[in-house]
Task: inverse folding
């Protein structure tokens, strides 16, 4: 099996889709390789593209804030994106880009084998679970095959929205409560089943 270091290097060198031509840096996942949870966003933005690290801009600050309030630091968790290079002008990644990039996230999940995957926003929700209408499904636990998922809003959506930042914070607290229950061997209630 490939290692996360190898995946990281493959992402850095990748030219599989046209986003390679416009990016400054590709953005591999980052964080604790033994994390219980993987956070999955959409695609890098401007700051991430410049730095080569996920969620280092304003949206990243919101995510950090929500983690902090749940008593978690960023280096305890693993953070990545469905697509590893920035789409021009932060447009939503297209199907070809998502498809060409999907094997990286699949491998990250396979290697880390997290207890739960936290899906951040509609694009990741669509790519990973085929879902839509994030506002209807946020705060819920989903299962697809043997993998559990927790669905919440995208941190970028909370930037100018006081209500949504409260929702993100509340959801992240619930997520870590669920993780504690999973670690204690408790049964977690699954709200939605997705067929794989
Ligand atoms: N938004 C994302 O979806 N991912 C990032 O890494 C940063 C902003
Ligand atoms: Fe490769 Fe993904 Fe970047 Fe496209 S977005 S070049 S598939 S790493």
Result:
């Amino acid at each position: 099996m490939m290692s996360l270091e190898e995946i990281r290097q493959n992402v850095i060198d990748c030219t599989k889709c046209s986003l390679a031509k416009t990016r400054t840096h590709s953005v591999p996942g980052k964080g604790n390789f033994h994390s219980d949870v993987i956070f999955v966003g959409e695609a890098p933005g401007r700051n991430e593209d410049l730095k080569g690290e996920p969620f280092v801009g304003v949206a990243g600050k919101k995510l950090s804030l929500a983690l902090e309030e749940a008593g978690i630091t960023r280096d305890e968790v693993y953070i990545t994106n469905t697509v590893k290079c920035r789409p021009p002008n932060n447009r939503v990644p297209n199907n070809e880009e998502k498809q060409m990039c999907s094997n990286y996230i699949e491998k990250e999940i396979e290697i880390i084998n997290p207890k739960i995957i936290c899906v951040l926003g509609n694009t990741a929700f669509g790519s990973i679970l085929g879902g839509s209408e994030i506002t209807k499904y946020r705060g819920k636990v989903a299962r697809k095959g043997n993998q559990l998922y927790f669905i919440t809003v995208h941190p970028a959506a909370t930037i100018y929205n006081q209500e949504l930042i409260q929702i993100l914070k509340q959801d992240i607290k619930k997520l870590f409560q669920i993780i504690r229950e999973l670690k204690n061997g408790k049964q977690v209630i699954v709200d939605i089943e997705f067929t794989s």
Q: What stands out?
A: The helical segments are 4-13, 19-22, 46-51, 58-69, 95-112, 121-129, 134-137, 162-183. Strands lie at 30-31, 37-41, 78-81, 116-120, 141-144, 147-152, 192-194.
